[in-house]
Design a protein that fits this description.
Layout lengths: L15 E4 L6 E2 L2 E2 L1 H13 L3 E5 L6 H10 L9 E3 H12 L5 E5 L2 H9 L3 E3 L8 E4 L7 H12 L3 E4 L5 E2 L6 E2 L1 H12 L5 E2 L6 H10 L4 E5 L2 H11 L2 E5 L6 H5 L9 E3 L11 E3 L16 E2 L14 E7 L2 E7 L2 H12 L7 E4 L2 H9 L5
Parallel strand pairs: 1-4, 1-13, 4-5, 6-7, 6-8, 8-9, 9-12, 13-14, 14-15, 19-20
Antiparallel strand pairs: 2-3, 10-11, 15-16, 17-18, 18-19
Helix pairs in contact: 3-4, 5-6
Length: 364
């Protein structure tokens, strides 16, 4: 783990920043203003960047054009998509001109063609594989053909298993929800899942940039952050997309980020990012009252540096007291909840605590 020196900028500790897109840079096609400003600043400073997305509905050049339209100077070779990665795996597995049943957007079909395979749409075309990616126009007939092809012996590739997609109106069903339809019908898992949380997109980005200290930035625990953990990378969770603070408190060890920030401003301002506790190895330490606090033995810092918050947990209920930023309160709560004392309810002991919990949507 790379740890920035106190008071230094987070971004300066890393030689590559790998961004997720949906929920980090934009919501659907609407840019997140703070993200656009942050990425523009990184470009101006010459920081190497990459973009790794599970979205299989656009090719790399289309993603770069979309980002350029938002005012970001992004090259196609900086973009890694699950569609291109899936097509590459298919090309390594099957001979040229093999028929592949594509359930997804035109971008996925184009990637399959680009590697010398032949996209098809029906069982009667004899597909050797099914590749499934998100597209809003996918319907029952598409899923039925895919189910029939897999039952007939075709290998099943999923570009990703994201259950939801972030939108300005809230999360909506993603490719993982469509994969779940086939999983239910076939009573089996896909043969290959290409995108995050598989580490391939992250490791490819680091290899391509020649980076030795990459930082992965994402908005969801079960794909971006778990993928970074699997790849052995430090990660920053931003709260502009899918994951909310309550989910972070209950994150599995495999889904725990290194840092959390409200948005990409945390890359530059130490006051806008919190270094979360490392994976906990010890047990919570008892207090005189038999409850637990953040003072357990752990493999890293148990509370954010300079945090003025204290957390006392009694069973699944925690009492938050003290003062500081809302993010520091979240870090203190994670330190206790990740210690083996899972928190389901947090009560404030002061107006400052009440305000922080309100900001975090943890006030009940």
């Amino acid at each position: 783990m790379t740890v920035p020196s106190p008071g230094s900028r987070l971004v300066d500790a890393y030689d590559l920043v790998i961004f997720d897109l949906d929920g980090v840079i934009y919501l659907v096609d609407r840019p997140i203003e703070t993200a656009v400003a942050a990425v523009g600043r990184l470009h101006a400073e010459g920081k190497p960047l990459a973009y790794a997305t599970n979205n299989a509905s656009r090719r790399a050049a289309e993603v770069a054009a979309l980002l350029s339209g938002m005012g970001l100077a992004v090259r196609p070779d900086e973009v890694l998509t699950s569609a291109a990665a899936a097509a590459g795996l298919l090309a390594n597995r099957f001979p040229a001109d093999s028929p592949v049943l594509v359930v997804g957007a035109e971008a996925l079909r184009a990637e399959v063609r680009a590697v010398g395979l032949r996209p098809v749409t029906r069982l009667e075309d004899g597909p050797v594989a099914v590749v499934q990616g998100y597209a809003p126009e996918i319907g029952w007939a598409d899923l039925a053909e895919a189910a029939l092809a897999v039952r007939a012996g075709a290998e099943w590739f999923a570009t990703n298993t994201d259950r939801t997609l972030p939108t300005a109106r809230g999360p909506v069903p993603g490719n993982g929800s469509l994969v779940a339809v086939l999983r239910t019908a076939l009573e089996r898992e896909p043969d290959v899942v290409v995108g995050k949380p598989a580490p391939a997109l992250f490791t490819a980005a680091a290899r391509q940039a020649g980076a030795t200290r990459p930082l992965a930035v994402g908005d969801r625990l079960d794909t971006d952050i778990e993928g970074a953990v699997r790849a052995g990378l430090d990660s920053l969770l931003v709260l502009t997309g899918v994951t909310r603070p309550a989910e972070l408190l209950h994150a599995a060890v495999s889904e725990r980020p290194t840092y959390v920030a409200n948005d990409l401003g945390g890359l530059f301002d130490p006051a806008q990012v919190v270094h979360l506790p490392s994976h906990v190895t010890g047990e919570p330490g008892p207090t005189a009252s038999g409850s637990t606090t953040g003072g357990f033995t752990a493999s890293g810092p148990t509370t954010p540096a300079a945090s003025g918050w204290q957390v006392v947990a009694d069973g699944a209920t925690a009492l938050l007291t003290g003062s500081g930023s809302s993010l520091e309160a979240l870090g203190a709560l994670c330190a206790v909840s990740w210690s083996g004392q899972p928190i389901s309810t947090v009560e404030p002991e002061s107006d400052s605590a009440r305000s922080a919990l309100r900001d975090l949507d943890l006030l009940h």
